[in-house]
Design goal:
The complex is a heterodimer of chains A (468) and B (206). Chain A has 468 residues and is α/β, with parallel strands linked by helices. Chain A contains 17 helices and 19 strands. The longest helix of chain A is centred in the N-terminal third of the chain and has 17 residues. Classes of the chains: A alpha/beta (468), B alpha/beta (206).
Chain lengths: 468, 206
């Protein structure tokens, strides 16, 4: 019988059926970080349990790392305590730690792919909702809570129920100046922030076929923003080429067998999906959010919705959003004043993002009214960017060049909005207070749109600013 | 490990309206800068409850009803749709549970929040849109009437009212049988785990 990748991976990792009807699913790769793991290690100690497969857990530190302070001890004692706790836990249990001193630290969802740990046909769990990022490689990857982090540490398994599979098919070629970020923002806008509850999203079609692995990661990353716990792209030659030669990739003798195995996990022709949603790439334009959920979005040249066009439930959230964002219904978002520009995060902090923006940034200057920061998602990305001279282009343009970490995506380190500052952000969430000030405002967009806003000081159409 | 069988929760209720309430709102990220869950209860909905000027805002969590629930260490929170979306932080249900909430009733729940709550032994039951509106209105109008969240029989009732409720069968099974924390079952499967692991080449680094 023809099967989806989801079904094949699920079956290969099924340990047994549990008494409550759930599946005990083997988790081949467990990624941990400093925020959601310390309590799990505490529970493990309380129960007198050991880490069952220490070689299948990988750790790094990302959320609390100050990206403007590279020496320890950090000026924030709590950040120092959290990194020390992870050092102790990984040492006590024999877990590989991509620490800040190794040159390989970074946002956990960048470290896995960079190291070749993220592979097709595997199961990956991490105490972080953006774990779906790894689905770009054809893995079933999802976020879990801290008690589940304990479960994986202690047993390398989770109690789960299978998901339905929705194929999101995007065909065609994106217009110049339209990026993977616009594709996922558009999908979430159309299907809703809760449209994916109960589903795994399979992203397919010629648009995704044409995407690089990094573009696929941007899309899969935001699956949870559409309510889907995981999202994936079927593995293909691009996937295998990306992994080849990475430190944890299968070595020479095992390589061909691994590729054959990986390819066999791709969804079979003629397999049954629980739902299919088609999109046309040509219909997608640069997309920005105007509200407090990632689904509240418009094309840059559209007006924000008039309240009377919305149904009752959406209208209530929209009224709340307009009040928080200090924006007016039925007006353009283009031209809205911007205070801060953030280029980075597990959505858009990869080398291809930094390269694409740098291409257009040469000779341009950040508006004097804007604070702009660029944060490579990982140390390896930062090293590569410096090697290519990208840092100089950003600094010359007036961006602050930072160290690796989550930075201003969330408010757990010194990078925070102040008061009601409005941030043009390449990250993934525009929730109230997300960027560290309870009155702070976030407008999500692609990296090049962030750069356009940085230069003009207002929300802008990058296609016009950069003559794309 | 023996756990309580959670067949029903009978307690005072608090309505916290709104759809798509994300976990950043339930517990702002600055409170995740910690290595234990202790003390999270007092910060539940902190930025919704306190304005930038440090003054209390009008919010259900600042009401006398919320204080009664906190004192009793049991309560039912009546919420909207897609409650607990966003970040996977278990700190969110932990903070509400530590505040005093022992059950949630809503239109729908984000999956990770649902799983995290269930593993704490806190049931999340859903009602139809119409019934939820009626339940919400009843709870506001009758703050002294206890609400019964019946996990075993899948109903939410209060006074003379009763609404048909739902929850994933596996969660219901775990709660009513005192097996809502799956760790014991997962540990029992150790032999089968080794067998599954043995069949996966990548687990051996190949």
């Amino acid at each position: 019988m023809a099967k989806t990748l989801f079904q094949k991976v699920w079956e290969a990792h099924t340990v047994r059926k549990l008494p409550n009807g759930q599946t005990q699913l083997f988790i081949g790769t467990h990624l941990i970080h400093e925020v959601t793991s310390p309590q799990a290690f505490g529970m493990l100690r309380d129960l007198g349990l050991k880490v069952k497969f220490p070689q299948r857990t990988f750790a790094t530190v990302d959320h609390i790392v100050p990206t403007n302070e590279l020496k320890e001890p950090y000026s924030d004692p709590i950040a120092q305590e959290m990194i020390e706790a992870l050092r102790k836990n990984t040492k006590d249990y024999g877990i590989r730690f991509f620490d800040t001193t190794t040159g390989t630290q970074g946002i956990v969802h960048m470290v896995g792919p960079e190291q070749g740990i993220t592979q097709p046909g595997t199961t990956i769990a991490c105490g972080d909702s953006h774990t779906a990022t790894h689905g770009a490689f054809g893995a079933i990857a999802f976020g879990i809570g801290t008690t589940q982090v304990r479960d994986v540490l202690a047993t390398q398994t989770l109690a789960l129920s299978p998901l339905k599979v929705r194929r999101i098919e995007v065909n065609g070629k994106l217009a110049p100046g339209v990026y993977a970020k616009d594709v996922i923002l558009h999908i979430i806008r159309v299907l809703g922030v809760n449209g994916g509850i109960g589903y795994a999203y399979e992203y397919a079609g010629t648009t995704f076929d044409g995407f690089s692995l990094e573009e696929r990661m941007t899309v899969c990353n935001m699956s949870i923003e559409g309510g889907a716990r995981c999202g994936y792209v079927n593995p293909d030659q691009k996937t295998f080429d990306y992994i080849k030669g990475k430190p944890f990739a299968p070595k020479a003798a095992d390589w061909d067998a691994a590729v054959a195995r990986w390819a066999s996990f791709a969804s079979d022709p003629g397999c049954q999906y629980d739902d299919v949603k088609p999109f046309k790439a040509e219909d997608i334009r640069p997309t920005v959010t105007w509200g407090i959920t990632p689904g509240q979005a418009v094309f840059i040249d559209e007006k924000m919705p008039a309240l009377e066009t919305l149904n009752a439930a959406d209208r209530q959230t929209a009224e709340d959003a307009y009040a928080h964002m200090k924006l007016a219904p039925n007006t353009p978002i283009k031209g809205t004043k911007v205070d801060v520009c953030f280029l980075g995060s597990c959505t858009n902090g990869r080398i291809s993002d930094l390269r694409e923006v740098a291409k257009y940034l040469k000779g341009r200057k950040v508006s004097p009214s804007v604070k702009a920061i660029v944060v490579p998602g990982s140390q390896l990305t930062a090293i590569q960017a410096v090697h290519e001279g990208l840092d100089k282009i950003y600094i010359e343009a007036g961006f602050e060049w930072r160290g690796a970490g989550c930075s201003m995506c969330l408010a757990m380190n010194p990078d925070k909005l102040v008061g009601d500052q409005l941030c043009a952000s390449s990250s993934n969430r525009n929730f109230k207070g997300r960027q560290g000030s309870q009155t702070g405002r976030t407008v999500l967009m692609s990296p090049l749109m962030v750069a356009a806003a940085a230069i003009t000081g207002v929300v802008s159409d990058a296609r016009e600013v950069f003559k794309v | 490990m023996s756990l309580a069988q959670i067949t029903q929760v009978k307690a005072l209720a608090l309505a916290v309206p709104g759809d798509d309430i994300d976990t950043d709102r339930i517990i702002p990220a600055r409170f995740l800068r910690c290595v234990t869950f202790d003390g999270l209860g007092e910060h539940a909905f902190r930025d919704e409850r306190t304005g930038p000027d440090g003054k209390e805002r009008a919010h259900p969590m600042n009401s006398a009803q919320a204080a009664r629930i906190a004192a009793a260490k049991q309560g039912v929170m009546v919420v909207g749709f897609n409650f607990g979306c966003g970040s996977s932080r278990e700190h969110a249900p932990q903070s509400l549970w530590r505040f005093g909430f022992t059950a949630f009733v809503g239109g729908s729940f984000a999956e990770i929040f649902f799983g995290n709550s269930t593993t704490l032994g806190v049931p999340c039951l859903t009602l139809s849109k119409e019934d939820l509106a009626e339940c919400d209105a009843f709870v506001r109008a009758n703050p002294n009437v206890e609400v019964t969240v019946d996990v075993a029989n899948l109903t939410v009732s209060a006074g003379a009212k009763s609404w048909k409720a739902d929850i994933a069968a596996s969660a219901r099974d775990g709660l009513v049988n005192g097996k809502w924390d799956p760790i014991a079952d997962l540990l029992e499967g150790a032999d089968s785990v080794a067998k599954t692991a043995g069949g996966l080449a990548y687990v051996a680094g190949k």
